[in-house]
Design brief:
By secondary structure, this protein is of the alpha/beta class. It is about 45% helix and about 15% strand. It has eleven helices and nine strands. A hairpin with a 4-residue loop joins strand 1 and strand 2. Helix 8 packs parallel to helix 11.
Length: about 325
């Protein structure tokens, strides 16, 4: 009986100590954290190099009116090998669409996130072939992380809809049609034929690999499956409800929705998708999750154990900082 009493006393002490530490951490974060993100941008990142004219051209702003149907943002860090197949597939699809809809216009913005290899040279080869109106490379002076790279690309997008797609080409690009169809149902406008109205609407359609989970479970180790389920639980517990796959790198925004969400994005690394969807849900932005085709491509920059632990910590911080008001969202809820 004395042992149980001692155990209970120790447990209460640990709980009390944990609560005190959480309060102290919350106070520290509230005092030291800026409520809105501070976006760092170097002078050289305000322009892009046009390989045809051999000159630097000032990048446009998302605050300007859209002039294209679609902007595709491709964050790329040391992707000289995986980028060409992805671009070939993407460009073939988009060029075929122009043949079907002569007024359709698109751009691809490759954001080289401080790459040390020939990613920029590869991008410039495609820009020279297709022209800078269709493809341009934003070369970041230093690495920002995937979320930071996507944000800077979106800030310079011209499209009425904006898609960010991973450079590895794991997602089948023609599944863009599925996302566009879902977005059309949300906003009641056609992204292909009515870009002007689409641009002013608010909606988000995201690709999902959740339907492939059973197949992937069989190929992963038990430890990796435990980490994956742990991450999904933390996402559900702390941040995003009702979304089965927050991390798929194939998400389509209306221009207005992208501007609203990325204005308040604080996380620059792997967990940025979660914060992005958290912000969208808090603002009542409609989200459609659509199953897409996906293939594992070698060369992933994600280190399973380290990256998932880092993302788990980020999830806790996202929840805590928004809960205590250390982080704030710039926009009001959508009616």
């Amino acid at each position: 009986m004395e042992f149980l009493s001692t155990l209970w006393t120790s447990l209460l002490y640990l709980i009390g100590a944990g609560v005190c530490l959480l309060i102290l951490l919350s106070i520290f974060l509230y005092v030291t954290t800026k409520p809105y993100p501070i976006v760092k941008r170097f002078k050289d990142e305000e322009t892009f190099f046009d390989p045809v004219t051999k000159s630097r051209i000032k990048l446009p702003s998302i605050n300007e009116s859209s002039t294209l149907n679609l902007s595709v943002i491709v964050p790329a860090y040391n992707e000289e090998e995986r980028l060409p197949p992805m671009l070939d597939e993407t460009l073939e699809f988009l060029e075929n669409r122009i043949k079907q809809h002569s007024s359709y216009k698109y751009e691809i913005i490759i954001v080289s996130d401080g790459s040390k290899d020939k990613t920029v040279q590869v991008a410039q080869t495609y820009a020279e072939k297709y022209g800078s109106e269709k493809l341009r490379c934003l070369e970041l002076v230093e690495n920002r992380g995937k979320g930071g790279a996507v944000r800077l690309g979106i800030q310079n997008a011209r499209g009425a809809t904006i898609l960010f797609a991973d450079a590895d080409g794991a997602s089948k690009f023609e599944d863009l049609v599925k996302l566009e169809s879902a977005l059309k149902d949300i906003i009641q406008c056609d992204p292909i034929t009515d870009p002007e109205h689409v641009s002013a609407k608010v909606g988000l359609a995201i690709g999902s690999r959740a339907h492939l989970e059973k197949e992937s479970l069989a190929t992963r180790s038990l430890f990796r499956n435990i980490l994956m389920y742990g991450f999904h639980f933390l996402v559900w517990l702390f941040t995003v409800k009702g979304i089965k796959d927050t991390q798929c790198g194939f998400k389509l925004f209306t221009r207005k929705a992208a501007d609203i969400c990325f204005q308040s994005l604080h996380v620059n690394r792997w967990a940025f998708d979660v914060e992005l969807l958290y912000i969208a849900q808090k603002l009542n932005i409609p989200i459609a999750e659509i199953p897409i085709r996906w293939t594992e491509i070698e060369g992933s920059k994600v280190t399973p154990i380290i990256s998932w632990i880092q993302m788990g910590c980020d999830l806790g911080l996202i929840w805590l900082k928004y809960t205590i008001g250390a982080w704030k969202i710039k926009s009001d809820k959508i009616d």
